[in-house]
Design brief:
By secondary structure, the chain is an alpha/beta fold. The protein has 18 helices and 13 strands. Strands 4-5-8-9 form a 4-stranded antiparallel beta sheet. α5 links the parallel β10 and β11. α16 packs parallel to α17. The chain binds one RNA strand of 75 nucleotides through β7, β8, α4, β13 and α9.
Length: 454
RNA sequence: GGCCCCAUCGUCUAAUGGUUAGGACAACGGGUUUUCAAUCCGUUAACCGGAGUUCGACUCUCCGUGGGGUCACCA
């Protein structure tokens, strides 16, 4: 096959959304094809008429688009019935298969199916990842390959299509490995040249069991909705079960195409580690420009913030850089907002006056209120002197820095920050002052003074 | 249960017979600092067990143990 053009495929059945594990199968097939200038095909395996749904097909296609995995052609098995019928007839004519009378065992079972005449032999194949695998197919018996001429079953349709589409490498999850011999039997019955096989390791949940619904988000669209970036998803998925052998961790899709190598694919299953995904997603967020982060802010800021009387899109855009520093995915914006961490940007915070005192305050207990008032007045006076046009973090800091040093930084900066945010934890007072604006900053300092006077 | 596959820090992994077993995430500690975040620096932490083979095994072989997959008229 050395000179043959590489053709790979991803063959999902539209009985559910694109599973996150499926993303990696698709990705590896995509990478391998692109790396070799070959073709990557998408084949919708919708032979199960009851369980296949258009809605799932749409969802899968949508996820592909989002992930940026382009395919060269798309097929549906449901549109290929004539071809299967032709090959089914051929197999029966050659006495490699036969129509079998059955006693239905379960509801829905037919009283007649098409069975493959199993030669009952040991099938050995060379897997590009697992190595040589040898399995006795005897206990498979004469397995069913079609319910009738119009209704082929997975193994048969899969083989026929892989042949018809000229697939050179069948790469899929390791759960398919034990099924491969029966498919090889069908290939051999037709006398077709076998494709190569590569069974990639499974992705496991943190408890090392198979990834399933109860482990959380599985549908690729959920990751999109949570605000993960597609580049982070593909990068992260590529690194489960594969590594370049170097210490590089961040890869664009293009770099993955260049560096991906089947020879370096793991044999053992890997756990899906969401913390590392979060870290990686953050790395990608850091690469984004202000436009992208601002529109993400606008999109993910929840109604509890939007409904505040002081709300403005302008403020939301302005605090974007501050928020970006403390999130790893867009939905964290919502989480932050819902935890009350964003409210003070839009309205005067509510707090107790004693909270204005720095924990390690040097102020004398019996006169501390008047002392603190004096400090805040001192801050105000210096800030007022700042021109509106010069109202930025650096100038603000410069204008009060020496003063805070003279009265004790903590005793000045803590109350200033508290007056602006009403929170024990927040960005520093200089940044806060800048985004709040001169007028609002002075107003909040006044309010702090008023509180202290009562 | 039969058959198949797998086995290095908690997790993703590097190592292709000779390394102080390396990196990343996480965790922890520290610097910076008014708090948080960010950032920088550092620490803890692994070869599943037992026999071989060999001068020498994480690396090779066998057995055991553990984990996973698969055994449909689903894919």
């Amino acid at each position: 096959m050395t000179d043959k053009k590489v053709v790979t495929r991803f063959a999902p059945s539209p009985t559910g959304h694109l599973h996150i594990g499926g993303v990696r199968s698709a990705l590896f097939n995509y990478l391998w094809a692109r790396k070799h200038g070959g073709e990557f095909l998408l084949r919708i395996e919708d032979t199960d008429k009851e369980r296949s749904k258009k809605e799932f097909e749409d969802s899968i296609l949508e996820s592909f688009k989002w992930l940026g995995l382009s395919y060269d052609a798309m097929y549906r098995q449901s549109e290929n019935t004539e071809v299967y019928k032709k090959y089914l007839e051929q197999l029966i004519a050659d006495d490699k298969a036969y129509i079998s009378k059955e006693e239905p065992k379960e509801p829905g079972d037919r009283d007649s199916v098409i069975r493959f005449r199993n030669p009952n032999k040991v099938v050995t194949f060379d897997d590009k990842i697992m190595g040589t695998i040898s399995i006795d197919t005897t206990d498979l018996g004469d397995f069913v390959i079609a319910k009738d001429f119009e209704t082929p079953v997975f193994h048969f349709a899969n083989v026929v299509d892989d042949f018809e589409m000229g697939i050179t490498l069948v790469m899929r999850g390791q759960e398919h490995a034990p099924n491969t011999p029966r498919q090889i039997l069908i290939w051999e019955a037709f006398g077709w040249e076998l494709p190569e096989y590569a069974h990639i390791p499974l992705i496991l949940a943190p408890d090392k069991t198979k990834l399933s619904k109860r482990h959380g988000a599985l549908d690729t669209r959920e990751y999109r909705n949570l605000g993960y970036l597609p580049e982070a998803i593909t990068n992260f998925m590529a690194l489960i079960g594969w590594n370049p052998g170097t210490e590089q961790e961040i890869f664009s899709l293009t770099e993955l195409i260049e560096q991906f190598d089947l020879a370096r694919v793991q044999k053992s299953a890997g756990v899906f580690n969401i913390e590392k995904l979060d870290w990686m997603n953050r790395e990608y967020i850091k690469l984004l420009g202000p436009d992208a982060t601002q529109s993400a802010m606008l999109m993910y800021i929840p109604n509890i913030i939007r409904n505040l009387t002081g709300y403005s899109n302008e403020m939301t855009a302005r605090i974007a850089p501050i928020i970006m520093e403390r999130i790893s995915k867009w939905s964290d914006i919502t989480t932050l907002a819902e935890a009350g961490e964003l409210t003070y940007y839009f309205e005067q915070p509510v707090y107790e006056k004693d909270a204005l005192f720095f924990a390690k305050t040097k102020l004398t207990t019996d006169t501390k209120y008047t002392e603190l008032i004096a400090i805040i007045e001192g801050l105000k006076m210096r800030l007022e002197a700042l021109e509106n046009t010069d109202w930025n973090t650096e100038s603000i800091k410069k204008s009060i820095w020496d003063y805070t040093e003279s009265v004790g930084r903590g005793d000045a900066l803590w109350p200033m920050r508290y007056a602006l945010s009403g929170k024990d934890k927040s960005p520093d007072p200089f940044i806060l002052s800048e985004v709040l604006g001169k007028e609002e900053t002075l107003k909040r300092l006044d309010i702090a003074i008023q509180k202290l006077q009562n």
